[in-house]
Design goal:
Helix content is about 40%, strand content about 10%. With about 120 residues, it is mainly alpha-helical. Helix 1 links the parallel strand 2 and strand 3.
Amino acid sequence: MLRSFDSLHYKWSARHDDSAAGAAQLLIWSVIERHAGVTRSLNLGRTDTRNSGLVRFKKEAGAQSSALPYSFYPDAPSQVSAEVLSGPMLLLSQGWRRLPRIASRALSSALYRYMA
């Protein structure tokens, strides 16, 4: 969460596909209760339209969607959306999901500073 004057910006959250839903909804509701009457808007951020679960979550939280046009100069990157992976990123993602939890935690700790 980031606050800028009278607006809140919910920047990022995630959960594993097979984990129970609920924590993000509770967090958003708690923020809405805490900041009701204090802030004017809550921006839930952008969502790839192909991510139906996140689109549904934000709609159920009361968000209103609007188009967010993008332009690229001089050329569009080969990987525009993190929602649809291909090539080496798809292979890396599939391999990462198969790692034992202890291995992914150790690698995350070692690699995070280079990827953030």
